[in-house]
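[Meeting: bench + compute handoff]

Bench side (C.D.) handed over the final construct sequence. Compute side (W.E.) agreed to return the predicted structure before the next meeting so the bench team could plan truncations. Sequence as handed over:
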Amino acid sequence: MQPSLFALLAVGVFAGVYVGAIPGLSATMAVSLLISFTFSWPTNEALAVMMGIWVGACYGGSRSAILLNIPGAPAAVATTLDGYPLAQKGEAGQAIGVATTQSVVGGFIGVIFMIFLSSPISKLALSFASRDYLMLAVMGLLMVGSLGSKSLEKGLLTAALGMLFGMIGMDPLSGKVRMTFGATGLMSGVDYVCAMLGLFGAAEALMQIKTKDIKATKQKVDRIIPKFSSIVKYKWLTLRSSIIGVVIGALPGAGGDIAALVAYSQAKRTVKNPEVPFGEGAVEGVVAPESANNAAIGGALIPMLTMGIPGDAVTAIMIGAMFIHGLRPGPMLLNDTPHLFWFIVGSMVVANVFLLIFGLTGIRIFTKIVEVPKRILLPLIIILSVVGILPQTPWKLEVTAPGIV
């Protein structure tokens, strides 16, 4: 109940929302940078600001996904499929409002599951063997046919190309280098952020050049907060998607991006007669992934707190932060420091409250981005995409001029 902890959570959530909205910046990057700043802080203060940034950034990626068709974070990739068509119809305010409320609801459901079902979910995650992860990967590839275009052949071809690019670099088992063509920078593979910004950022800007003279759609932002009846309408879809997010989030190495795609796919299969077809601005296509990716936060914390195994990249960094502050993540952590579990639970609850506040503010300003003339917006998108990949690029750019190196 210390006011300083509430203030740090608020600052973390606010910063996370706007860091997550910038393509190329992610919760993983923000939390990793925070470790150096919070090295000398007390443990509670350091964990509070990290939890705030994580919760805010996981939601923040949906804003650029809806407005620009560029996911600010990997977990927002599925949100682009219906969020951006809603913005093209002038309903960006409604889409962001739905994304905010569903993220908060999914976050609370993740907390509830973390409190009551940590032990059985952690046992389920531990029971996954190599064959189970293989089946999960195969299921993800098969989902491409339903998530992408209406042509199954194009979807499978895209999946095959994705597998081909995923094989670039050093094999994790044998250590053999594959398809690097002698470039040492490719030994670690194609960076996820670079691929995402290239496929969604630069590609979207290039595709929209042909419509650069079309006047931007005027956005309707008269009602941002969704009606309570609409939240109740999607309650079962929200619950199913959140459960998917918790379970997949608890799988080591999975994370919110996989959870969001799986939730979107199950929504597309189970929702009968949506008002608008999926891929053309269906509200259900925003509800499912946004509920899942924030619920995955609670799921990812379960193996971290109970077994010392990271559920995703952010929890891997947080385990390092705990070691720095003298904690030893693992089975004995909750026995030796039981208050830590409840501190993290309380931080998630308060962070989701702040997320509701900050997520529903500034939307009118954000929606103005869509109304910016494309002759100005498209060059900015390409510049931001290039700037976003520079920290991930293994090569140094050297420009030589007379007297300048």
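W.E. noted at the follow-up: The chain has 18 helices and two strands. C.D. will use this when planning the next construct.
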